Amino acid sequence: MLARKSIIPEEYVLARIAAENLRKPRIRDWPRKARFIAKNGACNLAHKNIREQGRFLQDIFTTLVDLKWRHTLVIFTMSFLCSWLLFAMMWWLVAFAHGDMDPSTENMTNSTKWTPCVTCVRSFTSAFLFSIEVQVTIGFGGRMMTEECPLAITVLILQNIVGLIINAVMLGCIFMKTAQAHRRAETLIFSRQAVIAVRNGKLCFMFRVGDLRKSMIISASVRIQVVRKTTTPEGEVIPIHQVDIPVDNPIESNNIFLVAPLIICHVIDKRSPLYDISAADLALQDLELIVILEGVVETTGITTQARTSYVAEEILWGHRFVPIVTEEEGVYAVDYSKFGNTVKVAAPRCSARELDEKPSILIQTLQKSELSHQNSLRKRNSMRRNNSIRRSNSMRRTNSSLIVPKVQFITPEGSQSASET
């Protein structure tokens, strides 16, 4: 190290390192913008500083359904347990006030002069067991209520009413949580990426949607919205500006028959927010396309909704989805392994506005693609011919090598005789 320092001055080394660092391009990683809707359909939104928390208790049933399963099960268990303990305390007080807890009255039970309010209730444990029997209507037969105490009859009626209310609310909550609409939406799938290609002479934004279940979605409809940050002419900044864009559907209604995977198409025309965006501008755009599929579940009749979104990085320009529906032995078969596969196709790199103003761009693009396709076919044919010629030559060489040469034998008389061996 000392020899190196003596040979190369330190100032020269530092200057060279600084020059090398200046030559290297510095790439700044811009932070990715948070998407409004995740790929699984969840809304990426956090509610903060909510002061009126009491509004959630006004709609207690929806609040219970929206809770997580662990919280719902804890509330389900505690509601029954607390009601049993509460009425067990009431039954114990009734028995204590009537004197059923007095040991002197234990031998007077069979007497006609004294009758307890509830038989065999001598402690809080027995009162708790009787509370469970009343509310759950088990009826073991060891403990029973008599007509001695009108207050006990009132407590019995009150506990039955409260128990029915708790059963209705808690069981309804559990049923609604198990039959929620978003559970059905998990079998509605969207393609991981969307594409932009030419269809019927127009640039179109397309994605694929499918249903994994055989039970259909009735009256299914698809909506597309563009979410972007905009600024009004007055200077107002709208962070989440939603714009509906039309979906190309040959049927007058917006409903689709989702019996097999479909490619949903949006024609990029003058009404579309993508009208002025070209292939080069797409990566620089700060936009998000939200897709919403709504319909009625055939088996339950509940309305369900499936959502996803596509950002600029997930949109492939000049691609097309491969076909996945084939007819096999009189049955249409769907190959879901190719659900999101795409292939490159000829598509102009300009925006839809430029394509409308200069239709010749599309013709030139198609001609170039046709020429390139013909050239590729010619190359393939020439390569095949060359391969066939090489194979034939190699076959001739091998056959010629297998032929046995003629050998001439010279006799002593000087005559020559040819023989083949």
Automatic annotation (TrEMBL):
Coiled-coil positions: none
Catalyses which reaction(s): K(+)(in) = K(+)(out)
Membrane spanning stretches: 73-94, 151-175
Composition bias, Low complexity: 384-397
Keywords: Ion channel, Ion transport, Membrane, Phosphoprotein, Potassium, Potassium transport, Transmembrane, Transmembrane helix, Transport, Voltage-gated channel
GO biological process: potassium ion import across plasma membrane; regulation of monoatomic ion transmembrane transport
Subcellular location: Membrane
Every Inward rectifier potassium channel C-terminal domain range: 188-358
Potassium channel inwardly rectifying transmembrane domain mapped to chain residues: 37-180
Keyword set includes Transmembrane helix: yes
Region Disordered: start-end pairs: 372-397
InterPro entries assigned: Ig_E-set, IRK_C, K_chnl_inward-rec_Kir, K_chnl_inward-rec_Kir6.1, K_chnl_inward-rec_Kir_cyto, Kir_TM
Single GO term (MF): ATP-activated inward rectifier potassium channel activity
Protein name, entry field: KCNJ8 protein
Source organism per UniProt: Sapayoa aenigma
Highest classification ranks of the organism: Eukaryota, Metazoa, Chordata, Craniata, Vertebrata
